[in-house]
Amino acid sequence: MSAAWPRSRGKRVLLVIAILVALLIAASVGSWLWFKLNPVEIVEPPPGVLALLTQPIPDGPIADLVRRGRYLTIAGDCMSCHTRAGGQPFAGGLGLQTPFGTIYSSNITGDGDYGIGGWTPAQFYRVLHDGRSKTLGRLYPAMPYPHFTVVSRADSDAMLAFLKSVPAEHYNPPANRLPFPLDIRLVMIGWNLLNFSPHGFKADPRQSAEWNRGAYLVRGPGHCGACHTQKTVLGAEKSDKALQGAVIENRFAPDLTGNPRTGLGRWSAADIFEYLRTGRNQHAGAVGQMAEVVTYSTSLLSDADLNAIVTYLKSLPASPDTASGAPSAAAMRAGHAIFFDACTACHLVEAKGQPRMFPPLGGSAVAQQRDPTGLIGLILGGGRTAPTLARPSFQTMPSFAWKLDDQQIADVASYVRNSWGNRASPVSAKQVATIRSKLDLRQPLGRGD
Amino acid sequence: MAQAMPKVDVVLVGFGWTGAILAQQLCDAGLSVLALERAAARSTPVNWATTFDQDELRYMWRHHLFQNVKYSTLTFRNNIHQSALPMRHLGSFLPGTGVGGAGIHWNGQIWRWLESDFKLKSHNEARYGKQATAGLTLQDMPVSYQELEPYYDMFDKTCGTSGQAGNLSGAKQTGGNPFEAPRSAPYPTPPLPMTYGPKLFEQAAASMGLHPFPHPAGNLSQEYTNPLGMQLGKCTFCGFCEKFGCGNYSKASPQTTLIPYILTKPNFELRTESEVLKVERTPDGRHATGVTYIDSAGIEHFQPADIVALTAYQLHNVHLMLVSGIGQPYDPATGQGHVGKNYCYQTMGSVDVFFDDKLLNPFIGAGALASVIDDYNGDNFDHSGLGFIGGAYIAGMVTGARPIEMVRVPDGVPKWGLEWKHAAKKYFLRAMGLSVHGSSYPQAGNYLDLDPTYKDQFGRPMLRMTFDFPPNDLKMSQYCTDRAAEIARNMGASSVHAKPRKGPYDITHYQTTHNVGGTMMGESPADSVVNKYSQSWNVANLFVTGAGLYPQNPGYNPTGTLAALAYLTADAIKTKYVKAAGQPLVAA
Predict the structure, then answer these.
(1) Is residue B420 part of a domain?
(2) Cα-flanking dihedrals φ and ψ of residue B381, to 5°?
(3) Is the CB of A357 less than 8 angstroms away from the CB of B233?
(4) Known catalytic residue: B514?
(5) What does the pLDDT look like over B53-108, one tens digit per residue?
(6) How, if at all, do strands B431-438 and B392-397 pair?
(7) What is the CATH number of the domain that holds B267?
(8) Tell me, what's the pLDDT at A263?
(9) A50, B45: Cβ pair inside 8 Å?
(10) Which residue from A minimizes the CA distance to B246?
(11) How close is the nearest chain B Cα to the Cα of A403, in Å?
(12) Total domains present in chain B
């Protein structure tokens, strides 16, 4: 724990309350303002970045260390966040849209000025384990150090060796765009006190070695909870709702528990394995941020590690089933007509879908999440299936923002959420309007032109 | 002064079907490959998503996917006594531009040639005597069907072609084309289900003792994953294939079958908006050093490469050979030279079939949705006494019911006014066309060369096309269209309108985008531009792909054969040329 922290219990409580208030103000006012000013960026990493993760590493004195480090950075999916559109892999500069503002990923290539070329293994380990950077000071948890903290020192050293081996880019990422007082990194002292303590991975002796490996990968380097777990108002993960699904960057990272409707309850172990390896299975395709996770991380993991992840995920108890109201008959009628016109070209009539190409929508977990943000975002903005080495195709769901108005999207979403055995809360035009605005998508033709 | 770029093993000029095939094959073999594409990168979600791809006005009439004649055109005349003029609007054929080329807006009709098509001249002369080929500059191909079969099969597996085999390794198959050459494997996916119109054709043809079978289709009957892991979806019969991109990934194209796979290769690079101006050579002219290209900012670059492959559309490959001064241009006056020689097309006839009592619902269509007979194609029938050689497949085809393009009215109905409106309304869902897809054979006066007057935007002479249908082909079209009309009458039609192809060739009205010849392959430099491996006789590290390789055009859509030849070329580069770099693979 930091030496700067007050020793008296009373002062600690006061300080924590002060930080809490500051963060609440930031969350409500600051984030609204900053979202208005900073629309979402389109994430399109440069072509060929996969090569850096897949090409053989030539023999040399530290080749084994570098190879191990590369595998660990794959497991941690460092690539997705630390590579901006058009930039060198790992050179940072990608803006992460958090509820508190935009945080730019740092340059983790070996560049001496802006990267980690001059870092010692101890300094690098401190980032992963404690969330403290040599150059930046206290990190925001957009860098998921609460997960990486379990990474061992030896593994951390290997990752550093790999990152120093990749082509360096002399590039300084932009400064974060956070409202006061969040732009003062010292506030993270309080956040860490409330939400974080550095620790190693503690194996559960009652579980198999495979389960424990899976738990390590999911909770540790894989940092699945960073997206799939709901956050507290302070942006920390709610431990009692671990992996039950959450809104992230105006999309929805689905429930990963055994819930048969919203989670992975209907997916066999082989289904989950196939999804993580190829980016698609008979139920769903990975789009949005998850597409990047699959392309740059899970599709490149070993069979043993994927099986371990599957074993761990299959052990998660089902999230509680939430009650949902039914949509009106009028919404269902309109939704059916819109679905037939706009969706059946790919999803086919009765939403049977085409396995591994276009997901069937009956039973779809994405469609039935308790929060419709993900479904609305998909219809509005479209999505692209993860290209992987096994399945290089990137089938794309087109954007309907220009074509359907808020009410039409609400109706078709309500219809999809409540047809073919699906059951989920109806969607309102207001919800669609909110997400259209947050995603900075245009109004349909003839409206607002 | 052109800016020199880092050298690559292979530079491809154009990134459509054959460019993508070469890129995939050569990247997998470990060569570094750069594709230069003159126009933009194009992809399904951006350029032809399901939300807007069935827009007839945008794509068909405003040429959204086609070559823009403002930037690239050619001059045309029917014969050497006329002065050629530049084409200011595309008509008879519609070349593509941009990544995927014409492979985006094709119909997906995937054919193989007959065995006799490979030996066309010798076969016909042996059967009908030398006088049968008089007036035609036919030539045999230097490859046989048997040599090309493995590569035909590769292309079928790349596309997932839907169809019914008629001949599996010599064993005839019920329901397939009994005339087809032996296939080593069945089609990867079953044939498309027939709708009512094609079914009527099938029944009529069968009742006449003919041999109908489902048209081989690149519009897939079911989901398919090709050997590269690329996935195609099931065709939904939206009826917008030809002249359109496919929004739901069910038409085989470079984008759906090859390009995303190629983009994962670290040894591949694609530069779009990079138009190649010239193939550069060593001072002795025997070796290509690379190509000069110009980017969209108007900056010229020199791209060095060990191998140059011209993988653009046939017209552009011929043009580039001519402006680069490679090989001897063909001169119709003397018969000397081969570059530009044997330009051929496709002799398209058709029959409109109208039903008063049958609702065909032709809006349920697909690019290759047809029942077809091959009884009157190539030399599948006896031509003795007919006065022509060659033939056509006849297809009862329903590619869709695009409302502007596909309004058919019977003979005798006025071209406009109330009566026309009534007929158009009545027959929109009650009419279909039979396609009479005829061969096109070469004659001495049909050729491509550089225009003496008109220059393109880069100051190079434009390509000049001199073409008219030879009498042989017009007789063929008349005969085969008559046969098609017989079938039409047997379909129970209330009226039939036969439209055999008539001369002179009219370049302003759409017929088909099947331009072939001009860089033909042959046995020796004395009869051709390239050898059987598509390697230039003059410049050993220059390869040319595409339909320009054909000395004539059989009665089939060209894509299947030009794709197979591209696979053969790639194989020759991988297994033969890299071991003997700079050497001819066939002794001149």
Answers:
(1) no
(2) -140, 160
(3) yes
(4) yes
(5) 999 999 999 999 999 999 999 999 999 999 999 999 999 999 999 999 999 999 99
(6) antiparallel
(7) 3.50.50.60
(8) 96
(9) no
(10) A345
(11) 8
(12) 1
Nearest CA in chain A to B231: A393
More confident residue, A182 or B533: B533
Whether residue B311 lies inside any domain: the answer is: yes
User: In one letter, which amino acid is B325?
Assistant: G
User: What's the pLDDT at A186?
Assistant: 78
Place A44 in a pLDDT band, splitting at 50, 70 and 90. very low
Q: Quick one: what percent of chain A has pLDDT higher than 90?
A: 69
Mean pLDDT of B359-363: 96
Element containing residue A187 per DSSP (H, E): helix A187-195
pLDDT band at A4 (very low <50, low <70, confident <90, very high): low
Q: Tell me the nearest-neighbour CA distance from A47 into chain B, angstroms.
A: 7
Inter-chain contact A342–B223, Cβ cutoff 8 Å?
A: no
Chain B residue with the nearest C-alpha to that of A394: B260
User: Domain limits at B283?
Assistant: 3-191+216-232+243-345+441-468+504-580
Quote the tokens at residue A8: 């008296």
**Burial class (CB within 10 angstroms; exposed 0-12, middle 13-18, buried 19+) of B197:** buried
Chain-chain contact of A346 with B266 (C-beta, under 8 angstroms): no
Scored b (16 or more CB within 10 A) or e, A354-378 reads bebbbbbbbbbbbbbbbbbbbbbbb
**B118-174 pLDDT tens trace:** 999 999 999 999 999 999 999 999 999 999 999 999 999 999 999 999 999 999 999
B492 domain residue, yes or no: no
Q: Please report whether residue B326 resides in a domain.
A: yes
Residue A104 contacts residue A143 (beta carbons within 8 Å):
no
User: What is the C-alpha separation between A83 and A53, in angstroms, rounded?
Assistant: 13
ipTM metric = 0.89
Angstrom distance (rounded) from CA B447 to CA B443: 9
Of residues B141, B89, B547, the one with CA closest to residue B345:
B547
Residue-level pLDDT at B49 = 93
Q: What is the CA radius of gyration of chain B?
A: 23
Confidence of residue B495 (pLDDT cuts 50, 70, 90): very high
Nearest CA in chain B to A402: B51
Is A442 touching B (CB cutoff 8 A)? no
| Structure confidence at residue B379 (pLDDT) | 97
| Catalytic residue chosen out of the listed positions B316, B319, B437, B514 | B514
Distance from CA of A313 to the nearest CA of B (A): 27
Number of cross-chain residue pairs from A and B with Cβ atoms under 8 Å apart: 74
Chain B interface with A: residues with Cβ < 8 Å = 43-45, 49-51, 223, 225, 228-234, 236, 238, 247-249, 256, 260-261, 263-264, 266
Q: Which of A31-40, A200-209, B365-374 has the lowest mean pLDDT?
A: A31-40
pTM: 0.92
Whether residue A398 and residue B247 make contact (CB cut-off 8 A), yes or no, is yes
Q: Give me the domains of chain A, ranges plus CATH numbers.
A: 9-195 (no CATH), 209-314 (1.10.760), 329-438 (1.10.760.10)
DSSP A290-356: HHHHHHHTGGGS-HHHHHHHHHHHHTSPPPPPPP-PPPPHHHHHHHHHHHHHHTHHHH-GGG--BTT
Of B51, B249, B264, the CB nearest to A392: B264
Report pLDDT for A23.
63
Residues B530 and B537 sit within 8 Å (Cβ to Cβ)? yes
What's the rounded Cα separation, in Å, for the pair B216 and A244? Answer: 49
**Chain mean pLDDT for chain B:** 97
Length of chain A: 449
